[in-house]
Amino acid sequence: MPKVVSRSAVSSSTDAQPTASSAAALRVYYCICGEFILVIDKSIASLPRRRTDGAIIVRAQDSDAGKARVFKLNAVAGDPVLLERPGGHERQYRFNCPRCTLPIGYQSTPPPAKSGPYMYIFAGALSQVQGEVPPDAFDGENGETIVELT
Ligand SMILES: [Zn+2]
């Protein structure tokens, strides 16, 4: 009976550099309650921010302007809220922490996540270290009027 040699064993080469696996480059973020919230392919600290509220902009869909980030959001969809902005109103579909229900971020389109071109993450909502409050947790409390939609 011939000996069976596994293909994977044969194809391994000694001089091949270990390829930077995508998993190694992923960043993991936690809610301040310690719940795992977000895994993403780039540090959110390096992503652009909205001028209006300082929220971190995560591109959720490919477009002419760029490719979508690879990310997964572990959050539950909350009630939409209507914000007063200079020059009009803005509707936000919120996503909340599944454990402590703290708002994590929002998008401009109804759930599920990534149904719109961008996902916005609240500045200071997430920490890279489990159980640690991020240094900017209290930034951005600029007295916005929030109208809860019924
Ligand atoms: Zn939480």
From TrEMBL:
<dbReference type="GO" id="GO:0006888">
    <property type="term" value="P:endoplasmic reticulum to Golgi vesicle-mediated transport"/>
</dbReference>
<feature type="domain" description="STEEP1">
    <location>
        <begin position="21"/>
        <end position="135"/>
    </location>
</feature>
<dbReference type="InterPro" id="IPR029704">
    <property type="entry name" value="STEEP-like"/>
</dbReference>
<comment type="similarity">
    <text>Belongs to the STEEP1 family.</text>
</comment>
<dbReference type="Pfam" id="PF25809">
    <property type="entry name" value="STEEP1"/>
</dbReference>
<dbReference type="GO" id="GO:0005737">
    <property type="term" value="C:cytoplasm"/>
</dbReference>
<dbReference type="InterPro" id="IPR057965">
    <property type="entry name" value="STEEP1_dom"/>
</dbReference>
<dbReference type="GO" id="GO:0090158">
    <property type="term" value="P:endoplasmic reticulum membrane organization"/>
</dbReference>
<protein>
    <recommendedName>
        <fullName>STEEP1 domain-containing protein</fullName>
    </recommendedName>
</protein>
